[in-house]
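User: Sequence in, structure out. Go.
Assistant: Echoing your sequence, followed by the structure tokens.
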Amino acid sequence: MSKAIQAIRGMNDCLPGETNKWQMVEDVLRRVAGNYGYAEIRMPVLESTNLFKRGIGEVTDIVEKEMYTFEDRNGDSLTLRPEGTASCVRAGNQHGLLYNQEQRLWYMGPMFRHERPQKGRYRQFHQFGIETYGIASADIDAEVIMLSARLWRELGINEFVTLELNSLGSNQARADYRDALVEFLTKHEELLDDDSKRRMHSNPLRVLDSKNKDVQALLVDAPKFSDSLDEESKQHFANLCQRLDAAGIKYQINERLVRGLDYYNRTVFEWVTDSLGAQGTVCAGGRYDGLVAQLGGKGTPAVGFALGIERLVLMLTELEKLENIRATTDVYMVMVGEGVDFTGLALAEQWRDQVPNIRIQGHCGGGKFNKQMKRADKSGAAIAIILGESEIASEQATVKYLRENKEQQTVAFSDIAQLLEQLIEG
């Protein structure tokens, strides 16, 4: 017998017992985005490699180490998208959506990075992203953060996440801070680990993200971002903070908070949690006013965020916020007797027409009553509608409650639709 083929490491199947959790989370993400007037955009998973080299930066870990890149039959270098923002900007530029226009967009789908798989982090992972274009003022920064805060309230985890906030200032302010940080790190190079020494020259802001305790202790005396901020960026950040205060959204200013990608400026933020063990990031975003021009478009202000759905589902599961998800089946049709299934399946179609949101699973393959009832219980359905020859003759069904301590009842076929409507209304 030939060896069974396994999934690629770090690229996981989502089985039926888990997909209902994902669907619930995805439904909340879609609904909240819609509440704010955001429209969905869908981009291809394959893009030109140059898109990510130009957009993300050639000296970032993503481009240097993590991208899935290959040549196609025409010799073109293609890459499975490692993130969504560059693709979204490319689509906006290509289709004329951005210049002198305002856009509020969201996307959701798979991304790919070749990194070491670990809990909540995989090589194929899924992101939900918010992207806005054409608004330079701090009110849109505030709206994007408010939208993310509403997600946590809707999912019931707002008490488990903390908002961290910082400003990277203008591109010039960021460059000034970069120079000051490199000067500081050079003076203390002997105290840096190998990874920080490498980043010090290629992407020094990432040293601030170091998980090395000795490096973090050293950074206590490092220059602060706020010392390099230009006046306009200071006013922008103050305006943002005032709007968050007015909305009752709590935050902590973290001057070491940076983004690992080159295109961010001014506002950066993260929602972090310690509910996954060590403190982890649930959602990250910020402003990237220079990216549209960097990718060939005309200068356009932009701000957004992305969150990993795997990590969010994991967090919700561990906090037991996904315990009462509606089962994939509401009603199981038990059909016993000669020719009963002919009428039963036709009745199920009729009830689906009358109650479009109901989910009815009809038993197929025959079998005795006890076997069918076991299947009904295993399906997770709330009720079983039992049909036998006598029920067909009297045009009445027996309704058995599978999850509640209620007496079974006999219901006329003509009244079943009303019962099903009451069932899904809760």
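User: And one key feature?
Assistant: The chain is about 40% helix and 20% strand.
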